[in-house]
Amino acid sequence: MSPRISIVGMGRTGTQAARRLLAAEPDIALTVYDVDPDRCEDFRGAATLATSAREALAESDTIVLALPREREIDRTLERFSDGEVTAPVAGKLIVDLQPPPAERARRLDQAITTAGGRYACAPLRPRPDGAPDARLLNALIAPR
């Protein structure tokens, strides 16, 4: 079974991440979502085009956030004034390519962990070969 990865936010960062993932693993089960559906059109046929962030979360075990502002991250993860993540993230890895400042990232990590997920944020470090999802996560790292 091929890895299932969703990318939420198809601006420049999300688009580059999608292209790198498809180049690294052409048979990947990739889902993409953006509030502007036209940003996803280049991936029609190569990826599933989700109609909502919730659908993108449900489709995959690894969720890549390429969102420029904390408010978009909070909306995607259904994180409201109490700070708790209410979106279904249990058992999922959330990879933040444009993370908030350190203290906010720490609180987000804690909220995702409390909801049963795992959080990783940029800058991502290369994973050793053989590590779970190493090839795909390494593909998310911008080429040097």
Offer a few descriptive terms.
144 residues, Rossmann fold, 6 strands, globular
Main sheet attributes: strand count, strand direction, barrel closure: 6 strands, parallel
Average pLDDT: 88
The oligomeric state is: single chain
Any idea how many domains?
1
Question: What's the number of extended β-strand segments?
Answer: 6
Q: Per CATH, what is the topology?
A: Rossmann fold
Structural class: alpha/beta
List low-confidence stretches: none
Shape: globular
| Corresponding CATH architecture | 3-Layer(aba) Sandwich
Strand content: 15-25%
- The H-level CATH homologous superfamily, spelled out, is NAD(P)-binding Rossmann-like Domain
One letter per element, helices H and strands E, the order comes to: EHEEHEHEHEH
Give the strand line-up of the largest sheet. Answer: 3-2-1-4-5-6
CATH class descriptor name:
Alpha Beta
Kindly report how far apart the N and C termini lie: 30 Å
Cα radius of gyration in angstroms: 14 Å
State the helicity in percent bands.
25-40%
The number of helical runs is: 5
Write up this protein.
The structure is a single chain. The chain has 144 residues and is an alpha/beta fold. The protein has one domain: Rossmann fold (3-Layer(aba) Sandwich), CATH 3.40.50. Helix content is 33%, strand content 17%. The chain is built from five helices and six strands; from the N terminus they run βαββαβαβαβα. It has helices spanning 12-24, 53-59, 70-76, 102-114, 134-140, and strands at residues 4-8, 29-33, 48-49, 62-65, 93-96, 118-121. The protein has a six-stranded parallel sheet, sandwiched between helices. Helix 1 packs antiparallel against helix 5 (134-140). The longest helix has 13 residues, at 12-24. The model has no long low-confidence stretch (mean pLDDT 88).
